[in-house]
Write a structure and sequence with these properties.
single chain, 210 residues, alpha/beta, Arc Repressor Mutant, subunit A, 6-stranded parallel sheet, 10 helices, globular, DNA-binding, phosphoprotein
């Protein structure tokens, strides 16, 4: 069971997210918090597998909470605000995901599961912007090791990841099963030395394969 602490200053949002997550058979919301200080206390008390944090909260914002608890739990930022600097700061502090509140129930559940399993998930509409910024900061296209080892199908999967596609979308687009997508992703991570799908995407953009 994936134990989750949920923090958002809007009660209706908390209730909605809790209903979605508790509806998943493998997720249990163990605490709900209305501000950042409550969130830090709950995370230290409950030691959850994942913490879902809003960014703008009273007393302590979500990014500061993340900074304080990143060594205790996996953190997924869930917010209305898609400002680039929030995304960059959250990932730099070690967030395991960044989701917009309007991403939908399926992505919310997927984000929690991904974080719990050591992966990272970012709302598709943010992924391309993030990786374009990563590429823009580079001077020349570096030679990224591992790409010559990818099969043609693995390169297709990696490119779709780089453009923000979910596993379900990749499976549909390439006419393959979800299990096959996951198998390809595992192989791609090994060949590229990437820890999760965000790093896969970053390497695709850095190498010019996007």
């Amino acid at each position: 069971m994936i134990r989750v602490v949920l923090a958002d200053d809007q009660e209706m949002v908390r209730m909605g997210f809790a209903m979605i997550l508790d509806g998943a058979e493998d997720i249990d919301v163990v605490a709900q918090c209305a501000d950042g200080v409550e969130a830090v206390e709950a995370i230290r008390r409950e030691r959850p597998d994942v913490a879902l944090l809003d960014i703008r909260m009273p007393r302590l914002n979500g990014l500061e909470v993340l900074r304080q608890v990143a060594d205790i739990t996996k953190v997924v930022i869930v917010t209305t605000f898609d400002h680039d600097e929030y995304v960059d700061r959250a990932l730099a502090l070690g967030a395991s995901g960044f989701l917009l509140k309007d991403s939908g129930p399926q992505l919310l559940v997927s984000g929690v599961r991904a974080a719990a399993s050591g992966d990272a998930l970012i709302s598709p509409q943010l992924t391309v912007r993030l990786l374009e910024r990563t590429r823009a900061r580079g001077v020349d296209q570096p030679v990224v090791p591992g790409f010559s080892d990818l099969t043609e199908r693995e390169l297709e999967v990696a490119r779709l990841v780089a453009h923000g596609r979910t596993n379900a979308e990749i499976a549909s687009e390439l006419f393959i099963s979800m299990g096959t997508v996951k198998s390809h992703l595992a192989s791609i991570q090994t060949r590229l030395g990437a820890r999760n799908r965000v790093e896969i995407a970053a390497r695709v953009w850095e190498s010019g394969h996007a």
